[in-house]
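Sanity check

After download, print the first record. It should look like this:
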Amino acid sequence: MIVCILLPRFELAVAAGGREALAAGPLALAPEIGREPLIGESSAAAEAYGVRAGLRLGEAFARCPALKLVSPDPAGVADAWERIVGALEGIGAAVESGRPGTAWFDARGLRRLHGGDVEGVIAVARKALGVAARIGAAPSRFAALAAASRARARRPEIAPEGSRLAAYLAPLPVTLLSARPEVAMLPEALERFGIRTLGELAALPRAALADRFGAAGTLARDLARGRDTPLRPRVAAERLQEVLELPESAAGPQLERALGLLIDRVLARPERRGRTLRAVVLSAALVEGGTWRTQVTFREALADPRRMRLVLVNRLGDLPAPADALRLRVEAFGPPSGAQRSLLAEPAAVRLARLREAVRQARAVAGPDAALRILPVDPDSRVPERRLALAPWEP
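Expected structure tokens:
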């Protein structure tokens, strides 16, 4: 049996300071600064007015003038969700994590450790979480999510197995499909065709769904019938981070120097043990409230602070406001730095080929003027513009 842990409105609850704040009135996550003005998750009181995630800001206030916006906290959400997943892994579960607030694990290997049945595993998981969560169990991932959506905070829902699973899913709404990224766009289209339940979806011919929606249609039909792909548990990985509190709100060159210091601190940590860095997460606490977070995967594993800074400094331009604190966390390690190739130790032909590839990539992103060379035209001219000229660089 697959067990699903569901924490509704998880991102909103973390940003608002706790689930108690959701009962204070209609709340919704504010749009991220610098992005399209679409609100995020909304509380139950806001949904009663018709406010839902994805609405434009003006339409949301038109439906609910008393709506209060909460600054997004992506870094806080990531930290809180990491604690939840870590608690589940602490009981021996191999966890597949969806978006923050949804996780699955297979209970078969845990039965003998925790009571011999699914109910015992669920009880141990609930105790390890320490928060009120909806918990469902079913033979497949999607069915477990459907069961969790019907569960209550203190009453888990266990779906039947075998041929009865399709009948259990039949009366549920097709909006449950929106939890799967592969078929998230289908519920709206299906409802326009008058298909509102999973049972109605499961009764449609497979060929008709494939013709209209492609692979997403056939996958949605399989999900409605209780069939799903196997779980993909995340790989346990060591995480390393450094935080720098800024005495004054930082931006521009000051923030770049702080980033350089963070990179040096991370590379100097003894826990790194000479390994390179494959992926890192850069986050900041903003002056205006909330946080900012971005993940960077390097094209090749790095241990050179100068090259890391060149990559990460560009991301600082996405900061929507000055920062009070900056954090750098390692998400994935690469091989030891001694196994890296040295640009200077390579033959000239190899270096030239890599340089050509770098120029090609730069021009693909920034256009043909991304790589130019300086040519002396009239060095003795009194007019500075005549002394030098720019021409396309060709290796």
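If your output differs, re-run the checksum step. Summary of this record's structure: The longest strand covers residues 323-336.
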